Description:
- By secondary structure, the protein is mainly alpha-helical.
- The protein is 41% helix and 5% strand.
- 14% of the residues are buried.
Amino acid sequence: MICNNTLVFTFFITSLGITPNTFAATGVPTPELSPLTVGTLSIPAELGQVTDTVMGAPSAPAFIHIQSAHGNYQAEKNIEKLLGYIEKNSSVKLMLLEGAANKLQPELFRLFPKHPDFNRKVTDKLMQEGYLTGPESFLIESTNKTEGWGIENLDAYKKDREA
């Protein structure tokens, strides 16, 4: 049992490649962030389960950590819906994502801009096949200014994928 926990922890740390200077070194912007205070955002049960809450300073920006079963279509759809809910009901405008190492460019997946319903079907099919995640699908459909940035160390991520 301890070995499994150690492996997961090790994978998490090496996969993210986070150091104290990671965000400064990656060029991820630091936009003005609004604090998310207690009671201002509650998550509907059908979208997810809050398993832990840690309160920091009231003026500190919020950090929302969403775990998923990667490649599970229903889990990814719930995350897509959850992110839409968060965007609509809070001031969150920046997503830091695993599995990417730069700014995500969802506009590249808006393949049929004059046919949004068809584009939505294509996006959904790509998510069913595991080529897109819930956060990526959310960003493709989002009309607001939410940005997605990958926080992975690309070399470490590739090594983990190969392993």
